[in-house]
Amino acid sequence: EDIKLGKPTRDRYIENYCENIRRLAEAGIRCICYNFMPVFDWTRTQLDHRLPDGSTSLVYYKEQVDAVDPLKSDSDLTLPGWDASYTREELRAVVGSEMCIRDRLRAVVAEYNKMTEEDLWANLTYFLERIIPVAAECDVNMAIHEDDPCWSIFGLPRIITCEKNLDRFLKIVDDPHNGITLCTGSLGCSAENDVVHMAAKYAAMGRIHFVHARNVAVLENGFEERAHY
User: Fold this and answer.
1) What is the mean pLDDT of the chain?
2) The sheet that has 178-183: what strands, in order across it?
3) pTM
């Protein structure tokens, strides 16, 4: 979070990141998928929604997210996308007790609430200008993952969300090693994104380095991931 928030300590973390790129290259890894999502990474409200064919899927319902306020002490902070990404033991190892986990989460959300999208763009630019030259030297493709879902939640800034913003992202460091993870689910959960067009466009540019191919049904109150054919 120090890198995304633009804290004075970010240079140390960025140098660690660059060293990891070098070591992965030595191990033969040529593609790194990463994201720049504040706090919550991917977010869903249920992980086991049953579909008509009997399979289960991940879903996002707006009214369930709107019912949560991370800054209120009596708010229910149980969100599958957050809670399932880390075990309670892992979180405790980082921030201490269960109460400290909740307090730390609220503190980080409060920090991001003070940021604008342009602030996040500036911090992403700072990051890219330092890691992409290292990736190019090591011939490692960096593939940013789109924000999932591709809109703001809890008032947090999100910027890797649409064609316009992906175009802006790719121009920050116009190097073929600076590319994207084409996640058809993350982009496809918004009816405003023409994912087929975007796939063709960025493939022709040689800037798709990794793909998450999945389908979603866009609803008035969110979206549901669909079963594989």
Assistant:
1) 88
2) 31-34, 141-145, 178-183, 208-212
3) 0.87
